[in-house]
Amino acid sequence: ESFVQAMESEISAAFDSGEPEDILSRAFKLAVTREDICTLQPLGWLNDKIMNFYMGLLVERSKKEGYPAVYAFNTFFYSKLSSTSHKGVKKWTKGVDIFENDVILVPIHLRIHWTLLVVDLREKAIKYFDSLGQKGDHICKTVLKYLEEESKEKRNIELTASEWTLHSMGTEEIPQQSNGSDCGVFVCKFADFISRDKPIIFTTEHMPYFRRKMVWEIIHQQLL
């Protein structure tokens, strides 16, 4: 039996056998159940647990030789930040200096849509990725303000806002989704390519394959 066949039967089993509450993977203080994994079925809407687990896998990989150092906030961070202020999320980075990284990933949950904000500390750039092409300039500004306050608080260093570039990626710059449910997969794959410093060359056609691959990766806690 080839690896691909073994992988396919394992993925099918994850979707089809057993109880919804069976735990299929545990890491990053998360327990992923069969019900969570089933959101990776075609046209399923990825939930917070899947998003956060996948971000955890990206951060783990970034510790290896040859990858940029990556920090990922969890999916609840931005809604908390935008509804409070730096004060409301100060404790989230307790004992961590996020500025020691090359890239910061901020997955964003906008009611019924997933998007991704990326901070590249190497080039002082904040970029917003939306597979439905909406602009997120206000989101970029909110995060820059957060970075200024976090820098002052944690390192006693003033960031110079004028040195930073903020940019919402246009529909001609990044692939766009062709249905109402793939936004979470797009966010995970934007984050995957960015955390390897790779150009974003996938398209909406890759989504069914990416979904299946993510099932295997989450169960095995290992990116292919």
Automatic annotation (TrEMBL):
Organism field? Vireo altiloquus (Black-whiskered vireo)
Q: Which residues form a coiled coil?
A: none
Q: Which GO terms describe its biological process?
A: protein desumoylation; proteolysis; regulation of macromolecule metabolic process; regulation of primary metabolic process
Boundaries of every Ubiquitin-like protease family profile domain copy: 30-194
Q: Which family does it belong to?
A: Belongs to the peptidase C48 family.
State one molecular function term (GO): deSUMOylase activity
Q: Which Gene3D superfamilies match?
A: Adenoviral Proteinase, Chain A
Q: Which keywords does UniProt give here? A: Hydrolase, Protease, Thiol protease
One Pfam annotation reads Peptidase_C48
Q: Which InterPro entries match?
A: Papain-like_cys_pep_sf, Peptidase_C48_C
Q: What is this protein called?
A: SENP2 protease
Q: Which GO terms describe its cellular component?
A: nucleus
Where does the source fall among the domains of life?
Eukaryota
Q: Which gene encodes it?
A: Senp2
